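Re: the pair you flagged

First of the two:
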Amino acid sequence: MSGGSYYVPAKSYWPILGSLATGFMMVGLGAQLVYGSANVLILIGVIAVVAVMAFWFRDVINESHQGLYDSQMDRSFRWGMGWFIFSEVMFFAAFFGALFYVRMFAIPWLGGEGAKGVSALLWPNFIAEWPLLSPPDASVSGPDNVFSPWQLPLVNTLLLVTSSITLTIAHEALKAEKRRVCRNWLAGTVILGCCFIFIQGVEYYEAYQHYGITLEAGIFGSTFFILTGFHGVHVIIGTLILMVMLARIIRGHFSDTGHFGFEASCWYWHFVDVVWLGLFIFVYVV
């Protein structure tokens, strides 16, 4: 590649394979939610997605080390990552919007308030409250209780906020060519991410075993697990990405000016942290 030229990647099957793997995983997830018997499909889909990501990123890393990328490719990567995060913002906005609609409109209407208060005729004895511990339909059982935001949720909030700080320190250290400092602080970030995942697992166990918060526990249970569950998946993915970045730092990859792979992982992690702050406020506190 000479000055002024643009690198055109070789033909790749990873995009179509990634789409098929993701589709397979989502079909399994849908079947699990509807029929409750698609764990194998989900597992196969997850393994396929991880495999495609690993091989695809391997090719991108090799192309970068071969010096095939220039400033134009760097801009392309930045735009691509920016649009990806924007799509993630819209993804979570849909679920936050559903939570907002239920709390601000649907529940008050069923309680007799607002322009559609006539909905109260459906269940005259319904009490409009949130968290909704007593769904209007008697065939649906609500949760027995809800979490205190000042226990495990607060601990996880502190963990993620701290992880953003440690990751920023690692990033600044890399830009200052302090690789050992970058490695240590990045390792700390990975540990914090793993701690978050573990505590989230403990919280889910407590939810099912002691609080009666399940996917079948009315609108509160479904919105709780949809929002926190998808966020948890993003934390797991982000932690895996940071593990890969840590391995690359140890192997001597990246420079003080050429490290967009590391920078993109920082963007993603900070986005995940911001989403959690929204979850902590609107799911646990308010």
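Second of the two:
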Amino acid sequence: MRLAVHHRTKYTFREPVVHALQRLHLTPKSTSGQTVVEWNMRYTGAHEELHYDDHNMNTTVLIAVDPGVHEVVIECEGIVDTADNAGVIGRHAGHLPRWHFLSQTKLTKPGPKMKALAQQLARNEDSTLDTLHSLCSAVLEEMEYQTGETDAETRAEDALAAGKGVCQDHAHVFIGIARHLGIPARYVSGYLMMDERVEQEASHAWAEAYVDDLGWVGFDISNKICPDERYIRVATGRDYGEAAPITGIQLGGMSDSLTVELAVENRGASQSQSQGANGQAQAQSQQSQSQG
């Protein structure tokens, strides 16, 4: 599938900004299941300072806000070809060892509720994959998807205790319990094209866990599915803090409003799929001619 993305974030300030830096994880990479055809970034009221790959191998852009501005706009758009690999990303790669993703963070650390749920599941040593699918179902059963009940600082244990949360909370609970069971797990931020619509509410979050013989496998707990061709991976990390689309520091210019516009559109078959279909059609045509 060929997906076209347009993501626009606008900040307005009551007072002029004195100084501000923002770290952006908004640029996807070509990896298993996706190929970036083109990707462009534009800024109004800010300029790029640095472009690098961080310790999680995420493409990271550091921008500085222009002093005195009352408005900052960050826009990215591009085209990504995707394929359905049943959520399988494959072998471990990057700067960090696999065991790094066994360590908990403040946001994923299990408390009594998470430990009790982990004990109910127990790890199936014969099939880690079955354990993870059961975990995915259990988290969604215990936590209703509901907006407005949590924020970026909500801990997994607190969200599970409340029984409410969004995709970020589902991912954190899943990750924390998977690690508690001895399974490496990480957080993923990216885009999901919801069926029957182009305009999306926000960027999406899910989890990946490491399975022997398969490698990293994705689990979208909120939608109870392994990511397919409707998903675009952008950044990964031990939790939301490491993979967040935009984070930063600011001096002066108290934020007055934040608006986000996101569109993800299906542009049809990817180039490789089209070439494959054309090749098959040409072969059938040649066969028909030779038989005639």
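Confidence is low (pLDDT under 50) at residues 281-292.

-B.
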